[in-house]
Design brief:
This protein has five helices and ten strands, in the order E-H-E-E-E-E-H-E-H-H-E-E-E-H-E. The chain is α+β, with helices and mostly antiparallel strands. It has a single domain, classed as Electron Transport, Fmn-binding Protein, Chain A (Pnp Oxidase, Chain A). Strands 1, 2, 3, 4, 5, 6, 9 and 10 form an eight-stranded antiparallel sheet that branches. A two-stranded antiparallel ribbon has the order 7-8. Strand 4 and strand 5 form a beta hairpin. The chain starts with a strand and ends with a strand.
Length: 168
């Protein structure tokens, strides 16, 4: 029996600035037998087209990017502080070179449209609605983003409907 219960996105009491910017998230996607996760500390939660939405950003060179591109669903999962080292590992190692999930000791759950991990405290199951490559021409404040894109390796932005929220 799962430790998670489903709640409405409108019942979320967590501060999104803390969840994403301070606590970090794992973005997890699957295609066939291939599942990978990566740490995200940028993004947002809000409303788009009258739907609860998540705003997720991934660089094209990340291994998870290919999985995100191939499927309609992915998960964003959030963890207690005791998992900080695992989140660091998922942000510094590539799924091309190592099985990060096994190395972290995470337990994948596959009962939803996208995989997530049993160790999470909160999971958002997301369905992509819109995706667009970011680019230098669209940046209005060059000073703010200047240090983040030295190689012109801009993120791709995904706007996704939050279709399910699972909370412990």
């Amino acid at each position: 029996m799962s430790e998670f219960r489903e709640i409405s996105p409108y019942e979320l009491a967590e501060n999104p600035f803390e969840l994403i910017g301070k606590d970090w998230a794992l973005v997890t996607a699957k295609n066939g037998d291939s599942c990978n996760t990566m740490t995200a500390s940028w993004g947002g939660i809000g409303i788009m087209w009258n739907k609860p939405a998540a705003f997720t950003f991934i660089r094209p060179q990340r291994f998870t990017f290919g999985l995100m591109e191939s499927e309609d669903y992915y998960s964003l999962s959030f963890y207690d502080e005791k998992y900080r080292d695992a989140l660091k590992l998922c942000g510094t190692k590539s799924g091309r070179d190592t099985d990060k999930i096994a190395e972290c000791g995470f337990t994948p759950e596959y009962g939803e449209a996208a995989p997530y991990f049993k160790e999470a405290k909160l999971v958002l199951i997301c369905r992509k609605l819109y995706a667009q490559d970011m680019n230098a021409e669209s940046v209005k404040d060059k000073k703010t983003v200047g240090g983040f894109y030295g190689e012109d390796d801009y993120h791709k932005m995904y706007i996704s409907e939050i279709v399910k929220v699972l909370k412990k």
